[in-house]
What does this fold into?
Amino acid sequence: MNWLNEFPVPNLRRDHSSGLLELGGASVAQLARTFGTPLYLYDFDRIASRAEEINSELRKISEGSRAFYAMKALSNISVLKVIHGKGLGMDVVSGGEIERALAAGVTGGEIVFSGVAKTEEEIRLGIREKIACFNIESPHEVAELIRLAKGCGHKVPVALRINPDVDGKTHAKINTGLAETKFGLSPELAKKLTLEIMSCPDLSLLGVSCHIGSQIFDLNTIKAAALSVKDFALELLRLGAPITHVDMGGGLGVAYGPTEETPQPSFSAWVEAAKNALPDKSFDLHLEPGRSIVADAGILVTEVIDVKPAQKKTFAIVDAGMTELVRPAMYDAYHHVTPVEHKGVTTKFLTYDIVGPVCETSCWLASGVKLPELKRNDLVAILTAGAYGMSMASNYNTRNRPAEVAVISGKAKVIRKRETLRSLWESELV
Ligand SMILES: Cc1ncc(COP(=O)(O)O)c(C=O)c1O
It folds into this structure.
């Protein structure tokens, strides 16, 4: 049985004669043996082509329409360089992400700053670096921007992030467009703030932004939010605000496995739905894709430490866990699992829970997976792990974070060394 046919992932294939899994033309087993496990592997050609595709979809709308990669999804500097090289700006949510983007060669003018609460230091940094836009989320943020922009020597560009009270029909923990969530501003409050912003000579109100959540498959939800945003944008125009763009955030869903009921929506369908936010043809559309650029380009390779028959299940305990990939623990997320070396001649298949070594019941990666019989030292690949994988990794249980390796035209390059254990307590004082 060919496990990959069950759920095809771009640029991932199995060599039928050797049974070896290949990512972007490189042998996953060989890379795992060379660089150790757990190991993140990314196909840079896939990342580049996804980045190129979304920007070219947006350019069909206008010259100024552009994607800003939500770098929280995967923020390795080499990844940022590839995406920036395809003409995308960066969507950041912290001062740390601004600094990281700058370190990748992104200029301030290509950065938009989202985020539910920005500190004085972060706002000062954004102003100093002349970022493209602050997406404002609270009255306090407006007051701070008015105070901190004074005398900075340029008009600070801002947009108001609207909470449209639209259900993104996604997991509750990543649904951000409902009124009961902490994100954005009600249109009524945003309207009040508009007048404050417009009366400040140091700020320039350039747009409206919105982000209703992540892993969205139902594009009608994007369309509903877009129509709210358009209403608000028209209101701003009536008030005389000089707005030029609408930013519909990120959130496009990615297929993680055969369990998905509907196919992954395309970039063009997403742009088509988001376009409904534009008050007229002269406006630019901005999007902030994260997951949809990097998710399916990445895999997490892990080695079986132990296979344990328990009362009700058989556990394959692997050397990656919630510390490397927290999505299953945090969102009950599904990740497809496949053997790295599998000749397809095995007749013995067993059902496993793939779990990690961390001392939490929530440290699991996949449940009820039917795989050829596993034994100690076997390698398995956790698929579609490029987004919110490494960027959410932690050191819980004093575990060092894994290495990251890029595959570029079939050749491997380490883009982050495995963290050393010593570095974990280096800054501790005894
Ligand atoms: C403001 C904002 N924009 C964009 C994104 C990226 O979302 P996704 O990775 O689902 O495209 C997020 C994710 O949480 C976000 O909060």
In short: The first strand starts at residue 12 and ends at 14. DSSP finds 13 helices and 20 strands in the chain. Residues 167 and 178 are 6 Å apart (CA to CA).
